[in-house]
Amino acid sequence: MKNIFVSNLSFRISDDDLKQAFADYGEVNSAKVIKDNFSGRSRGFGFVEMKNDEEADKAIEELNNAEYDGKVMTVSVARPKTDRKPGGFRDNPRSGGGFKKRF
Fold this sequence. Notes:
Radius of gyration: 17 Å
CATH architecture: 2-Layer Sandwich
Number of strands: 6
Number of helices: 2
Structural class: alpha+beta
Shape: globular
Order of helices and strands: EHEEHEEE
Distance between the termini: 56 Å
Number of domains: 1
CATH topology: Alpha-Beta Plaits
CATH class: Alpha Beta
Largest sheet: 4 strands, antiparallel
Strand order of the largest sheet: 2-3-1-6
CATH superfamily: RRM (RNA recognition motif) domain
Helix content: 10-25%
Strand content: 25-35%
């Protein structure tokens, strides 16, 4: 089973649209467009899980840099999330933001 990362999606693409785009290459276990937690709007990327690795590789090869709904998609094997340092932007000295204590 292979997990595929798809980016630069049109904001109009739904889970079903994404699944259909990959279904031509083999059995799709799941397809999920990632949405913003607050607005519910697409974030422009998603994940597709395909049962057969060979079919997934063929889909990645043929759909990477392919135009879909007016945008050129980037398609690759999904990599696991890396561990992030707690604190997010506050730990980044270049962010210019964050919380500062004033005494």
